[in-house]
Write a structure and sequence with these properties.
By secondary structure, the protein is α+β, with helices and mostly antiparallel strands. The chain has three helices and nine strands; from the N terminus they run H-E-E-E-E-E-E-E-E-E-H-H. The protein has helices spanning 2-27, 128-147, 159-176, and strands at residues 34-37, 49-51, 63-64, 67-68, 71-72, 89-92, 96-98, 101-110, 113-121. The strands form three sheets. Strands 6, 7, 8 and 9 form a four-stranded antiparallel sheet that branches. The protein has a three-stranded antiparallel sheet with strand order 2-1-3, with no helix packed on it. Strands 4-5 form a two-stranded antiparallel sheet. Strand 8 (101-110) and strand 9 form a beta hairpin. The protein is elongated, with a radius of gyration of 30 Å. The relative contact order is 0.11.
């Protein structure tokens, strides 16, 4: 019984606070304000200012800065894609040692894009290592062509080979940049 009364008191307190904050926000100033900045590309940086929404449409368009609790929200950073692709040719990465054996990647670039990937050196000791290489390398090669970069995911069960593949491929693509 005591727990139920405490729970009810908490619910009433929260509801009262929400009602108070809602009614206080709508009657505090009588007019709403919006934080704005100068339009993009104007070349100047003006300080933020408050405007009356009734005057919107009578001046040049502006950007509204979103806020979170009165603090300006973070602005996402957009990184532009490179202007051109890779240099054409075949680029060989170094032999990278992994736990299960060495890996070396050769990336062929045509028209500024990765068109094929060869792995002339790969873990091929008898047993499971060869099976893992035969399963993982085609996946890594296709992922590279699809991604057009060395940012490819590990193949499950072939983490060491995937890591060595990525290191060798990154070096080869650095030569092609």
């Amino acid at each position: 019984m005591k727990q139920a009364l405490i729970g009810l008191a908490i619910i009433i307190a929260i509801g009262g606070y929400v009602w108070w904050s809602m009614s206080n926000a709508s009657t505090s100033s009588g007019t709403a304000t919006t934080t704005t900045e100068t339009p993009l590309g104007s070349g100047t940086s003006a300080p933020s200012e408050s405007i009356n929404p009734a005057s919107v449409g009578t001046t040049a368009p502006t950007m509204t800065t979103p806020t979170i609790g009165g603090v300006p929200a973070p602005t996402p950073v957009v990184t532009p894609a490179p202007a051109s692709g890779y240099k054409n040719g075949a680029f060989t990465g170094p032999v990278v040692e992994s736990v299960y054996g060495p890996v070396q990647v050769v990336a062929t670039i045509s028209g500024g894009k990765i068109t094929s990937v060869a792995v002339p050196v790969f873990p091929n000791s008898p047993g499971n290592t060869t099976v893992i290489s035969n399963r993982s390398l085609p996946i890594l090669k296709q992922e590279t062509i699809t991604a057009q970069s060395a940012k490819v995911d590990n193949v499950s069960g072939a983490t060491q080979t995937s890591d060595a593949f990525r290191v060798s491929l990154s070096a080869a693509l650095s030569l092609a940049s």
